[in-house]
Amino acid sequence: MDRVDEVYEIGREKFSSAVRIGEWLRNLMAERAPMRDVRLFSPDETESNKLDAVFASTRRAWQREILATDENLAPNGRVVELLSENTLFGLAMGYSLTGRKAFMTSYEAFLPIIASQADQYMKFLAGAKMENAPVAAEVRPLEALQDFPAITILSTSVGWRQDHNGYSHQNPSFMASLLVKPSRKANCYFPVDDVAAIAAMEDAVRQTNKINLLTYDKNENPRWIDSNHAEFQLRNGGLSVFEFASSRQAPEIVCAGCGDIMSREMLYAMQIVRQYFPKLALRFVGIGALSHGAFGTVERPASQELFDEYFGQKTPIVAAFHGYAETLAAIFGRYTNPRRVLLRGYEEKGSTTTPLDMLMLNRASRYDLALDILKVGLFYGIVDREVAAEAARELLRERELAGQYIIKHGKDREKDVKWQYKIQS
Length: 425
Known about the structure:
Elements: E1 14-15, H1 17-31, E2 38-42, E3 60-61, E4 73-74, E5 79-81, H2 85-97, E6 101-107, H3 115-128, E7 151-156, H4 173-179, E8 186-189, H5 194-205, E9 211-215, E10 221-222, H6 227-235, E11 239-241, E12 253-258, H7 260-276, E13 282-287, E14 289-291, E15 294-295, H8 304-311, E16 317-321, H9 325-335, E17 341-344, H10 355-361, H11 366-379, H12 385-409, H13 414-417
Parallel strand pairs: 2-5, 2-6, 3-4, 6-7, 7-9, 8-9, 12-13, 12-16, 16-17
Antiparallel strand pairs: 1-10, 8-14, 11-13, 14-15
């Protein structure tokens, strides 16, 4: 693993998870070259999804004539490009069933195309292990004991950043279709940054008899944690406390983020609220993985005791999720009374607009989340009403100014794009 052991400029240095994953795949393909047992199945968007580092180790598979003007084509190429997610997933299934490692990538909005195939494959995995058959283990046929390498799907070009494709390219429902399946054959990873993305890839490639989904923004985002933290989070039920963003005393409000963009906005929101209430005890809990009915992966779900340790039993929670809020709300409901959770996510509001406007349309921007924290503080009697009212007026005005600038200039304000995170002292 290309390790990042310490972070000196937390929240200030920016990197692309997609670029790092492309480099990781390049190295994996180079290492496994003699075995030739790794393939990437991709639409014609390997480069636009910023995974083109793989072409340093392999080429696109191509069996016809190769012209002088063609790029990265070879008969023995290990990247299969075809503009059909259905066909690509079928090929990935076949590849995995022969004991080899299959990776697939697509735009987030197009992955629902394979939802039924993924469902059937998870049923096959359960059937191959005879999990639903009342047969004693000692009489199971040998083929039923086969372990198949997991298929790992990379979901990128996410709806929160569809600056030019618009409303039609905003659909995070594939993750929901995986998480709703009680067969527990799916892990959904939400790396908070490029370091967490590599930890997720390392974890996913070790899995068997699973579909793994990694969801991440391909653009540059702040780096928040180091490799030790990222690996710990996945071992620890997918949960971790970001100490640099959390008060030392017991929290009065717990804030949580699931997904790189949502975590960034929540961390910025906490920074905003602290400008008005510097003594307010806030804690940030990062959510790095989900599985059916649980925080964490199928193999390492979060226990009730761990949830209570991080979120408390009665402490109010403000959370932001990459996908539909209902998806994460169902998991929170397995651990606690969902009435204590104010949860934001994608509300099916979109357009061909700027990244910040997308967030504001869905009430998930740093300004909206800061307002939510204030709202919860008022409801529970934690913050001073007059100070909170003045803060809310200023935040609503700031949100309005940001929107007006977007309408006039067609881009986000520089102050919003180049936001400087300040560590909690």
